[in-house]
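Why predict the complex rather than its parts? Because the way molecules touch one another can change local conformation, and only a joint prediction can capture that. The input here totals 631 residues.
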Amino acid sequence: MVSLSELRANPRLKWIGVALIVVSLVALPFALSHVGTAWVRITNFAILYTLLALGLNIVVGFAGLLDLGYIAFYAVGAYTYALLASPHFDIHLPWWAILPIGASVACLFGVLLGTPTLKLRGDYLAIVTLGFGEIIRIFLNNLSDPFNLTNGPKGITTIDSIHFIGMDFGNDTRIGSLFVSGTIKYYYFLLALLLVVIVVNLRLQDSRIGRAWEAIREDELAARSMGINTRNMKLLAFAMGASFGGVAGGMFSAIQGFISPESFVLTESVMVLSMVVLGGMGNIWGVILGAILLTFVPEVLRYTVEPVQRWMFGRSLIDPEVIRMLLFGLAMVVMMLFRPAGLLPSAVRKRELAVPENGR
Amino acid sequence: MAAEASATASAAGAPILEVDRVTKRFGGLVALSEVSFSIARGEIYGLIGPNGAGKTTLFNVLTGIYRQDQGAIRFEGAPLADPTPDRIAKLGIARTFQNIRLFANLSALENVMIGRHVRTKAGVVGAVLRDARTRSEEAAIERRAHELLGFVGIAQRGNELARHLSYGDQRRLEIARALATDPRLLALDEPAAGMNATEKLELRKLLESIRAQGVTLLIIEHDVRLVMGLCDRVLVLDYGRNIAEGAPRAIQKDPRVIEAYLGKPREAGAP
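Output of the joint prediction:
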């Protein structure tokens, strides 16, 4: 049996491995649409959540700042896209203009949240960020009068889909004999976006900035005493994390075509945070795994809980939705008991949570 | 005596650090009361005193962790305006901590690399694009970090986690991390605490070679032999006041110092 590290060391095998991954990622949506078109859609959401989780990982995993209101940035990005590409104000900007605008607006909100919370850590920071997330949602719900900005709880409808290289991502296309649905087009778009975000994350982590964040997470006072401007570095973490959230939000708007404040509730923040924690805070691959699992497992349960009940008892005893949340909660508890550092813990977290050898 | 010592200090050149009647209160407690002294460039300056005398408080004021209530501090002739720890480090004062504060879960090398942060520039764009300048800066950071680990004598420990190092090596690593910020004044809070005799001897050599590189040293230390052997001048604090300053040998005989450490003799006689 060849070990993984040997595989990595061999350049030819490595390229074969990379090629296999690329081919399977390209073929994936077509394979999935044979199982059911819903699965392509679920995959898109998995990527969307991965983008969110990677953004939150900068704040929580790298800089160690617990943020319970992260979904607010997703909301800001989503509403920015919706307002700039819908009949609501009759503005129809192209996606390549809106996504950067959405990222910038979210970034601004990141700084807005970061500034007053600079001196807070841990529980206190969590409470303030939680409040921030709720404030944004409540604003979205109520900014419909006297000036109708967000259209309140009714949300914004008929948001433009993405138009790119002569294709409308909202519709299906036939390329030769190949039938490409809008969902599949979004899949590739999201995949490309994800690739960019992963590269940005990996490079940030292994840089002067990433080290400064690690230092702040480990010992803020020591970090300051080493000349790290902790205020700027924390704001940067908030701003970067928020920008990623904003881009993901924009994509959400474009894919859904409809958004309302209901999509940005606290449970969503908790879900994204769970992805980060379950996968392994601070480890980019772990966070990706966490996001994919937490998107897919509930969906798989949705499709299996009911048939299994029928098979076992002859009828559906418990509402599938209830069982789903029950199993989900159970899985989280078990995870935290047996793998507190996550499925793929970052090297640092693993050390932190390991039994200390010398009593320190 | 003190006048004589400060005369020699001014002869050695303009002072690198001047502390002028600094007072720090915590509620009703006066932790520092009108403490004044100055350190000449290239000097090894000792700070001693019984527990609770205000030594660490003074360090915390000097490095921007606390703000003094009264008095002024000048570094290289310029007053420390609006001091924060990061600004002070940038100005050229680095420190170590009495209760070692390393980035415990990072490797020794990473600890020192973080010390280079303040003297390097790469931002988000550089980090993401990895342009030639960022790459060469990153290589320089790593090279310097290795150099410093070698300089303090723990070259082969670079990949070990800071918290897995022995106590003495952790102290050395803290010094390497502080040196990585290119300080002109290095403030060490009990660098020899918890070290055995051999380690102390090595520490002394290390501190002397740091001075030889042109770094001025300010040291809090309890080990009398180390202080006497190493320091050019010593300041004695007691209850937040400076009670004596001068060459180590003179300080040792100063009745006020003896009183601070041992208490007042019951009757007049032998000190």
